[in-house]
């Protein structure tokens, strides 16, 4: 028996019993012209072209993992969406080899009955990673096969949806495969209205005078300050001897209120500002000298303000209470 690591999950194990049933050997589809494999059989990233990947919802750049022949593991390629928060459930993987037998890779794992995708017979194999990990393989020759892998651990009934969509596209570049059906590029998600807002413009110079901070504000966040990976923000240093802490405003166009809260704490108070309602946290992480407020701008975006007072905890939320109506008035319609 042999055990293999899966491509997308951190430790996807593939193993089977003592007998095996092999997926059918590829045969040219009726009337289809043979399609040669990629020039480099150790580059499965070439099994999906940019227009195919666009239709599947991925950027063209895949991550290549070279073949590990000693472990009978073929070369593989993984694609993830551009979203930095994408999980393994959002990924697609493809293995391809011309010098490893399918039986050696799966070590006797028994597949389900084959189904035809893109003119080739593909069989699903069970994964020790659980029902959220979907594996489909097609045998191309005695020592050649391709495998497509997708995941959905949140809804295991959909684990194979992406693999089934991708198999005809992959098959088009394999011997005996049929031409791929066209895929329309997935429409890009409209950016959040927060994406075009400059955080440092949310408080004017005249307004900042009442907050005992130094102006102008300092831009923070990814692509705004060195080595930062945080969302766009602005911070204002407190005036000397004021006792106040740094006043900080952060706009996250991709994360909800719950995701930027970072704690399980419930809001101590709600503050209305026009049609908006902010959640105020008067003792975040058990620190009475700090204060934070979060606006659920939309279901998937939020605005967060933090401040505090080192000298007088009773004034910890003073700046936030004054800043909330001013900031709210300058935010776009959510």
TrEMBL record:
InterPro entries documented for this protein: DUF3558
Annotated signal peptide: 1-23
PROSITE patterns xref list: PROKAR_LIPOPROTEIN
Keyword set, alphabetical order: Signal
Pfam families: DUF3558 (PF12079)
Domain of life: Bacteria
Residue ranges that the Swiss-Prot or TrEMBL entry lists as coiled coil: none
Segments of this protein annotated with the region Disordered: 214-238
Full protein name: DUF3558 domain-containing protein
Source organism per UniProt: Amycolatopsis minnesotensis
Organism placement in taxonomy: Bacteria, Bacillati, Actinomycetota, Actinomycetes, Pseudonocardiales
